[in-house]
Every structure is written in C-alpha cells, then in structure tokens.
Amino acid sequence: SQQGEEDPQALSIQEGENATMNCSYKTSINNLQWYRQNSGRGLVHLILIRSNEREKHSGRLRVTLDTSKKSSSLLITASRAADTASYFCATDVQTGANSKLTFGKGITLSVRP
Amino acid sequence: NAGVMQNPRHLVRRRGQEARLRCSPMKGHSHVYWYRQLPEEGLKFMVYLQKENIIDESGMPKERFSAEFPKEGPSILRIQQVVRGDSAAYFCASSLNLGGETQYFGPGTRLLVL
C-alpha cells in the first residue's frame, strides 16, 4: 500500500474558491513535500514541511502537518484556472545514508473559469 | 542556472531493444534519484545514486534494469530487452545534500515500447 495517500482523488471547484487536499501516511517521516504536475509534464516542487513544523505558507499555498495523525493538508486559496493540475504528496523517510521519496497516487484538481 | 535535464524527452523502442535514458542533475547537486510513473499513477522510486555509487536500488527490477552516475557525465538509466510493460514516464530528480532536502525533478522521458 502507498506510504502517502491523497484525498480526494479528484476535486472540481470554481475559480476563486479554495481547494483543500489531504494526504495521509503510515510511517515516521523526516519531511513531507507537495508537488504539482501538469498533464504530460514534469513535477514542480511546491513546498516542503519538516516533521518538526506544523504549518507553512508560500504565496497562496498553506500546508499543515499533524504528525500525531500522520496527515498533511494543502490549501490553495483564491484558486485560478492555471492551478488545474495533479497534486502529489511525497514523504521523505531517511534511514542512515539513504533517502527517497514515496509518492501517493495524486489528486486531480480542476478549476473552472 | 539550468534545472535538471533529461533526454531524450520521448523514446520509442521495439520489444527486445535497449533504452538509454540520460539525466544531468542541477549544477552542484551530487544526489540523483530515478522514478517511474505509470499512467494515472504516482511516481515510484527506483534508484538513488551519488557520484560513482549506487546507494539504494531497492525499487529497481533486478533484471534488465541498471543505473549509473559516473564521475563525469550524466546519470544513465539503462533498460535492456524492453517489454511493453516498461512503457512509462521516467523521471530523474536531484538534490544538493543527503535527505531532508528538496528534490528537483526533470521533465521526464516518456518511453513507449511497441
């Protein structure tokens, strides 16, 4: 099963509304990262939140992390049509000299103009 | 400051041929990661390399797949005797330091096996 699982799988909202996406994971992490992927393109890094942080902001993005519940949320405020993309959470579980990201299946966000 | 570069962007191979995917990390980055993405799926970790060393290849199939990151030049993901199931997008990422750092992704190589 996935380390990171996003919820919902798909989200459709009107331009100007806020979009909230959730991610749950199973094991302890060093950090959690959110990425965006436009159709057929590469991944764009949005924000990284470390295990000792609870909330982080970047422009219209707000990320929270609750390590007791092993969950994170990504909030996009005042959404725009250009925010239409797939969003992935990825957990970094560093063990010794090893580090790798484990991705969820992603959330498809559609923002209607 | 160029980002992570991958080439080719698209690669078509017939079953049984070899596929070579190249990745040049961001300048100054010595950690390279390869991921595979199947349609409608998230990315799956394949291998983590530092210069001249494979650190973790736990996500890479034992047969037909190999990866290297030589002292000079790009990292190479090599798939021998490709099969249709290898068709996917292959992404490379790099980071500055070990773990706990942002991984920056390249645009990916889309491999299609006919």
Structural description of this entry:
The complex is a heterodimer of chains A (113) and B (114). Chain A has no helices and eleven strands. With 113 residues, chain A is mainly beta. In chain A, strands 2, 4, 5, 9, 10 and 11 form a six-stranded mixed β-sheet that branches. A five-stranded antiparallel β-sheet of chain A has the order 1-3-8-7-6, with no helix packed on it. In chain A, a hairpin with a 4-residue loop joins strand 7 and strand 8 (71-76). The radius of gyration of chain A is 14 Å and the shape is globular. Chain B has 114 residues and is mainly beta. In chain B, the strands form two sheets. In chain B, strands 2, 4, 5, 6, 9, 10 and 11 form a seven-stranded mixed β-sheet that branches. Chain B has a four-stranded antiparallel β-sheet with strand order 1-3-8-7, with no helix packed on it. Chain B is globular. The mean pLDDT of chain B is 92. At the A-B interface, strand 4, strand 5, strand 9 and strand 10 of A face strand 4, strand 5, strand 9 and strand 10 of B.
Write a brief structural summary:
The complex is a heterodimer of chains A (113) and B (114). Chain A is mostly beta strands.
